[in-house]
Design a protein that fits this description.
By secondary structure, this protein is an alpha/beta fold. It contains 19 helices and 18 strands. It has an eight-stranded mixed beta sheet with strand order 11-7-6-8-9-10-3-16, with helices on both faces. It has a six-stranded mixed beta sheet with strand order 12-18-17-15-13-14, sandwiched between helices. Strands 2-1-5-4 form a four-stranded mixed beta sheet. About 4% of the residues have low confidence.
Length: 640
């Protein structure tokens, strides 16, 4: 089953019959996009006739790999890697690639050559989810500063419940590219009423589409709040706000299981199993938590500034989080206007999907439906329930073995949170409009700033991960844009060291690096990256003949080039997000989530303390300085 999915305790069957598009492998203008789909088949049915994710030609994959690894090694070491790549292409490579192609030649799950490996990775990860696989979006502040965090949380949670009805009733329109071509919608199936349930060795996505309640967490207490009545009426914002006020007024829990959801997944799996086995009441309460349409987390501390807010969204408090679900976080603000953020469960969904529901909900909340894409309708109108709907405080009889784990889980969580440094760069000197006058793409300009800044701090180039979406393909998720290239390395050396050996001006080098970056980005979005392909080839080699691995995979550069010292992602897609962040993926690296506005760049920078990363503040200052230097370089040419 896909992702190990179950519904109501039973495995979801994967439908391998392509009833609508049996013979269609690609979208064309002749395909009529269905106006309605069957929710139960949204994950399995290729409603929009999208192509399968392509497997790149082996020679192209190797060429892209060599391009990205060259700046990381000496000329002598690079010659060895080139020889390894040539041997691989002439020898084991085609054999392994043929196996990959054969295994990808079928209908049904897995729907691409990478999907099962990707799902196995995410579902099999046993590390704690906080920081490691929980990215976030901060939602823009409400223009009405009198709205409290509870009012805003009530509005958004109610809006999410309405959006979930749109997904369930089969009327959620597909995202489309600039040409009007539908993008894959399968991940929306898993975004509502889902729970990532831990089991020994592997997690399972469980869904409860019949759910009419949300889960609320506050100061260690867990609640289930009905938001849709039995007769299909939606709770009013006033009534839901009242419920959230009642919850916030509760005293902190003496003992709470919340921190366990942020523990090692096998520890949490064992503790959860013990909880369920020890008491029918525990099973009933846990089922209510699992079934929530979304989890609302009420924080009781106001972050002092944007960097503190980014840190608070990412790291806790442990007693006000539940990491098995998508989480809406609400922060109070004494200055008026509460803060909202979404902390995501990344295993089965990605940024563009999250941005989609935030955009629709905020258009609905603020009455700005004109900002909806032309093909997207408003949220469904449900009759409003009169008065309050039911609410339950969820009680757990915690057995002694689980009770003993809780202080340890809270200590682990606090230590992890304190080990991360977050700095937010709010660069307001210029943005997209200025970058375009340099004749470079805005994303490439920011990516080059990261690399030059890193080189200035550390004296060497960094392997760079930039995420890009592959949703033009059926079940497409992401591919890696390997932003580091020989051209970006030449730029860094020219800017930092004054290296003139290329014979090109700094602006010419910037444009050349940006042009190469744009090409690499386009290739990755078209399914023509190198990382996913090499990942599966390496997997097959280790699975089938581990004693005879290709030299290409044994060369230290293969692993080193994936040690993402700069893990980056651009979430510029909706005006309703003003901060995007995630933890670093390398112990000595940085995480850079960023948004590019017309006249601004916002970067949430994270790093682990007491490591070779040096620190988020250092990178913050260096990126700002390099962006300003880029402008000076461009201005100098304009004045000539």
């Amino acid at each position: 089953t896909a992702l190990g999915c179950v519904r109501n305790g039973k495995p979801l069957k994967i439908n391998t019959n392509m009833e609508l598009f049996t013979n269609m492998r690609c979208y064309s203008t002749q395909v009529t996009v269905p106006t309605k789909y069957n929710f139960e088949k949204l994950y399995t049915e290729n409603y929009y006739g999208l192509r399968r994710l392509p497997v790149p030609p082996l020679s192209d994959t190797l060429a892209r790999y060599l391009q990205s690894v060259q700046p990381l090694v000496s000329p002598e070491d690079f010659k060895v890697i080139q020889a390894d790549a040539a041997d691989f292409e002439a020898g084991q490579g085609p054999f392994l690639n043929a196996k990959l192609l054969a295994e990808d030649s079928h209908e049904g799950y897995p729907y691409s050559y990478i999907q099962k490996h990707w799902d196995d990775m995410y579902m099999g990860l046993r590390c704690p989810h906080p920081i490691n696989i929980s990215p976030f979006f901060k939602i823009v502040d409400d223009p009405d500063p009198s709205k409290t965090h509870l009012r805003r949380a009530a509005e958004f949670a109610r809006g999410f419940a309405l959006w979930s009805r749109k997904v369930l009733n089969g009327t959620l329109e597909p995202d489309v590219d600039p040409k009007g071509t539908p993008q894959c919608s399968t991940s929306f199936k898993l975004m509502i009423s889902s729970n990532k349930t831990p089991y020994k060795g592997r997690d399972v996505i469980e869904q409860h589409p019949e759910s009419r309640s949300i889960t609320v967490v506050s100061k260690g207490n867990l609640f289930s709040v009905e938001v849709i009545s039995e007769d299909g009426k939606i709770i009013s914002v006033d009534a839901l706000e009242t419920r959230l006020k009642e919850i916030e007024a509760e005293l902190p829990a003496d003992v709470s299981i919340c921190a366990l959801s942020g523990e090692d997944r096998d520890v949490w799996a064992s503790a959860r199993a013990s909880l369920l086995a020890s008491s029918p009441q525990n099973s009933k309460s846990m089922s209510a938590v699992d079934a929530g349409i979304i989890c609302v987390c009420l924080d009781d501390v106001e972050p002092a500034d944007m960097s503190a807010l980014g840190q608070s969204i990412l790291t806790g408090p442990a007693r006000s989080r539940w990491y098995d679900k998508q989480q809406l976080l609400a922060f109070p603000s004494k200055s008026g206007g509460g803060k909202l953020a979404m902390l995501f469960e990344h295993s089965y969904s990605d940024g563009l999907g999250w941005a989609r529901f935030i955009h629709e909900i905020m258009c609905n909340t603020l009455g700005q439906q004109k900002k909806l894409p032309a093909n997207v309708s408003q949220l469904p109108l449900l009759p409003e329930a009169s008065g309050l709907l039911s609410m339950q405080k969820l009680h757990f009889d915690i057995p002694s073995d689980v009770r003993a784990l809780i202080p340890q889980a809270e200590e682990h969580y606090d230590a992890a949170a304190k080990g991360v440094e977050t700095q937010v760069l709010e660069f307001k000197h210029f943005g997209k409009s200025e970058f375009k006058t340099w004749k470079v793409s805005p994303d490439a300009a920011v990516q080059m700033a990261y690399q030059v800044a890193f080189y200035e701090i550390h004296g060497h180039m960094a392997p760079v991960y930039e995420s890009c979406a592959t949703r033009r393909f059926f079940h497409g998720r992401t591919e890696t844009i390997r932003s580091l290239t020989p051209e970006s390395a030449a730029l860094a050396k020219a800017v930092v060291e004054g290296d003139t050996s290329s014979g090109m001006s700094k602006l010419e080098l910037l444009r050349a690096a940006a042009a190469t970056h744009s090409t690499v980005s386009r290739d990755a979005a078209a399914g023509m990256g190198s990382d996913r392909h090499l990942m599966v080839l390496n997997y097959i080699a280790n699975r089938d003949d581990p004693d005879n691995l290709p030299a290409l995979f044994k060369n230290p550069a293969f692993a080193a080039s994936k040690n993402w010292l700069l893990s980056t992602s651009n979430a510029t897609s909706t005006p309703f997000i003003d901060l995007f962040g995630f933890g670093p993926v390398a112990s000595n690296g940085y995480g850079c989530g960023y948004l590019i506005g017309n006249d601004s760049v916002t970067v949430n920078i994270t790093s682990f303390k007491n490591t070779a990363s040096i620190g988020s503040k250092t990178l913050h200052d260096a990126i700002e300085a390099i962006l300003l230097e880029f402008k000076s370089i461009a201005d100098a040419e304009k004045s000539e």
